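Support case: fe (ii) ion complex. Customer-provided input:
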Amino acid sequence: MNSIKRRNFIKTAILGSLASVLTAKAQANMATPRDAQGPFYPITPQKDKDADLTKVKGKSGTAKGQIIEIFGQVLDQDLNPIEDVTIDLWQANTFGKYHHPHDDSEAPIDENFQSWAILQSGTEGKFRFKTVMPGAYPLNSPDQRTPHIHFKISKFGYHSLLTQLYFPDQPLNDKDGLYGSKSKEQQVMMTAKTTAQKNVLKYDIILAKV
Ligand SMILES: [Fe+2]
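Agent response - structure generated as follows:
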């Protein structure tokens, strides 16, 4: 190889590796998209905020509705797990009612539904909780929100994230203003995935570093 050819070869190699670095950067995973907080973040103190929302400590009953389990991992944009993340989640009960003083719909409260949980991601950023399928709301409205669970996620060193988990194959998804405002790619990230187990869904959360 003469010197000109060698120079061109080196130049091509450098440009090639630079391009692959840039491509790798462009391919970093998108963080979970943000969504509206909504009007019903809990304001009434509640002692029981554990990972089983179908039972309330001190009460013998079980929440009404379809019991589901949701598990997943909190990851950074390179898909490394993040441990000790605070996962604050709240949702409507099976009737589409929030346990919140500002929810004035006529849908009934379910005293056996915990409605709010604060979890920590554990080993490998994993979390799991048991709840009921949230109802659409408001009751009898032509503009019902599709079923969803609100999440507020925080971890030092990462952008805090307010988002909503959506469910697959929900007929109201296509009519929901918030869900509809997202791109297809965002909708995929915000929608829990079915698994081989009935009523068990997978939902991963990706956080962006500060
Ligand atoms: Fe909501």
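Residues 3-26 form the longest helix (24 residues).

Case will auto-close in a few days if no follow-up is received.
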